[in-house]
Amino acid sequence: MILLPCAWCGPRDAAEFQHVGELVARPDPRTASQQQWRVYLYLRANRRGWTVETWYHRMGCRRYIQVERHTETNEVRQASTAGVTGAAGVTGAAGVTGAAESAGPPGATSPAGPAGSAG
Ligand SMILES: [Zn+2]
Description:
The chain has about 120 residues and is of the alpha+beta class. The chain has one domain (about 5-100): Folate-binding fold. About 10% of the residues lie in helices and about 25% in strands. The chain is built from two helices and six strands, in the order βββαβββα. It has helices spanning about 35-40, 100-105, and strands at about 5, 10-15, 20, 50-55, 65-70, 75-80. A hairpin with a 3-residue loop joins strand 1 (about 5) and strand 2 (about 10-15). It is globular. Residues about 85-119 have low confidence and may be disordered.
């Protein structure tokens, strides 16, 4: 069983969540080429080891969290709500705006910063 630390609900079984995917930096829509969009939309690194990914707590608070997880051991090192506002360009998270951020989770330690800087 994988326990994911939801910022609002606490540790929960991963079965309550939907895996959204790796955190991928969104290209600038004003200057991005078709190739950059293709990479952003369809290609994933599928890393072995530590990766930052987004999970949706569909059977809980219905908010998005970012989790740093080891893909082999499923160890979770860090979780946060930073960058889960759609600006991160996380696949499947389009349209996710401010609600999660404005609510302010009780245990949040870092303010929302520029997303996609990981990796
Ligand atoms: Zn939750």
